[in-house]
Amino acid sequence: MTKILIEDIEKEPNKTLFYEFNEFMEEFDAEIYADLELKSLGQFIEVSGSAQGKLKLICDRCLEEFDY
What we know:
Elements: H1 6-11, E1 16-25, E2 30-40, E3 45-53, E4 56-58, E5 65-67
Antiparallel strand pairs: 1-2, 2-3, 4-5
């Protein structure tokens, strides 16, 4: 998993960092695609963008696994 450091955002012009990734995340057992914008607002960091992926979930009724 790729880590984004606060220092990386602070070094960018206008204190905004654009970040794209396509990684397999073990926590979700899924391939995740994301396009993010991280903006430093002083004491806060605003994160906006979109993420896509297929998660494997378990139905509460029948306990069958399904893709969501």
